[in-house]
TrEMBL record:
Pfam families: GHMP_kinases_C, GHMP_kinases_N
Sequence positions that bind ATP: 88-98
Subcellular location: Cytoplasm
NCBIfam families in the cross-refs: PRK01212.1-4, thrB
EC number: 2.7.1.39
Protein name: Homoserine kinase
Alphabetized PANTHER family for the sequence: HOMOSERINE KINASE, HOMOSERINE/4-DIPHOSPHOCYTIDYL-2-C-METHYL-D-ERYTHRITOL KINASE
Gene3D superfamilies: 3.30.230.10, GHMP kinase, C-terminal domain
Family: Belongs to the GHMP kinase family. Homoserine kinase subfamily.
Amino acid sequence: MRSVKATAFSSSANLGAGYDVLSMSHLAFSDTVYAELINEKERRVMMESNSNVPLDPARNSAGAPVEALLKEFQLNYTIKLNVIKGVPHGLGLGSSGASAVAAVAAVNELLNLHLTLEDIVKFAVIGEQAVSGSPHPDNVAASAFGGIVAVTSHDPIRVVRIPINLNFRLMLVIPRVNTGEGKTKKARELVPKQIEVSKMVENTRFLSSFILGLVKGDRALVREGLNDAVVERSREPMYPHYPKLKEIALRYDAIGACVSGAGPTVLILYDDSTKLGEIKQEGGKVCAQHGFQCDFITTEIGEGVRVEGLN
């Protein structure tokens, strides 16, 4: 039987004030999904993995969207998915989103469904809902499209890749902690349901500054834009190390810093002006003061999902 391999990269969502809107793909980690057509007699998804993810498709971010895909197209096929996890789970790096995108992209190629990238995002969010209770599209959009993206509409899904005219690289400060199950769900529950108009205006300024800074190639605007007066503030109890890490990053002339998705990873944008060694040295001390070690991973903006037929 025919099989297809798809690889999707890790991502950092929100990017300051862009909650559920902005996300960035990066090359730090990736998930790979192998999809194989077993038979054309029964609608079923079979799961296997190198990790301890649930093998019940309905509870798996790769399996759930493929089940929805088969149902949508009324296909009575049995598909076997082998999910090779490379994106660390529970650290704000788009782990479930990468699996979902890779699975949908692989099955799309396997069955010649001719889905667009936005179609892939539409189905991949079902995987996010299966594991976090919320069909948030930001991580999956970045893993599907690559680069930095804005989700401009949720229903129907519309994704725009933002032009980048600023040279920078990325550093992920990743705490070695076990965040436990349901971290993303808990983080979303902390976000206030109502905010003051003044906070909305402040966040709109941040969001506008970030996008304009990328498009114009303006370092100062990007730095100003990597702030958030609402979501990061509400989640500070989940990552008490973050404010000091950001302070250190800016002191040593990083372009900017923000929480990666729901944390606890911190994303730092840097360039040749940044004193990266000092950030690592002092940042490591901050992590130690909070009772854990941190890994400092330098990387670059990632591409979209890769797909290749195997036979």
